[in-house]
Amino acid sequence: MAASLPDRLHLVGAAAAIASGMVAVLVAALVIGGAQAPPVAGLPDAGPVTAWGLPLAQLATQAAAVVTVGCLLMAAFLLPSYNGRPCADGARYACAAVGAAGVWALAAAASVVFSFSDILAVSVDQMWQVRSVLTLVGYAWSIPQGRVLAVTVGAAVLAAGLARTSRTVGGLVWALALATLAVLAPVFTGHSAASENHEVAVSALAVHVLAALAWTGGLGALVTYAVVGGRHLRSATERFSRLAGICLLAVGASGVFNLLACSRDLAALAAGGYGLLVIGKIVLFAGAGAAGFWHRHRTLAELRAGRPRAFARLAVGEVCLLAAAIALAVALSRTPPPASPPEPADTVTGLLGFPLSPPLALDRLLSW
User: Model confidence over 6-16: pLDDT tens digits?
Assistant: First the structure.
């Protein structure tokens, strides 16, 4: 998988373009969703650096997590192994996972700082003047969000170390498991964990995140492998095709379950900025699903015939759609969902449709 200089320049340029597009989608989604509303007069505010720095750090965290998982998935499962050891191309993807996991840990650490600033409603520069590093560490273990971010940083660092030192496929599988743990940790402190049907919502969101992560990360790794002309591209693509079909179904089904669990009033949901972002994710998911369908019926056949160009072009477009969906997901995590209609104060009133008071009134008994 020795890439030539033009291939490397193409990869760097494509990665920069996708990253810029993700930032643009995130900024637009935050404005549309109302997450960047002007501060309320008289209330403390962390300032614009934190308001924009926190979602950008979260986006960098998610993007680095996708790259890490995709590289480990490629090295451990999609590329061939010999006597329990990854092939030469798999070893290169394991090394790439080390760098991506390092970026992931740094971005998650930045999220800790910005989250601390956001919760205290103190700007980052003022926070460092009045708070010590020990206070920041204490915060990380005092609230669930801080503990989750600390777990993410630690798991990403351990995954990087394990991917760096492992010489076997089994070690890379353990590194992938650690990376998965780091990705799932924030699921338990988001909007879904605070919803009324939180058990269903959290379970659905966990499946949603894992499936989207494997789909996007694996496809991105395959795209880079196609650009550099990897010799195992055909076999790796056929293995991933089966996984991608499962991920497509899991993402769609879990997304529907999570949406129904988080809101009882779908009409009110669709009317607000949060609903617009959800609709945007649905459109992007439909586009990526259509691309996967076209892969199965056209481009994979051309790939088997020794013509990988059509597969690479369509796969790049599919990665762009999934990357935009990740940016929308980050914006959704910062956008408050619409409030559900209040439940009736009296359960009997809610069931019967009228108050039962007094319960043994004579006129009520005669009217029955």
Answer: 666 777 888 89
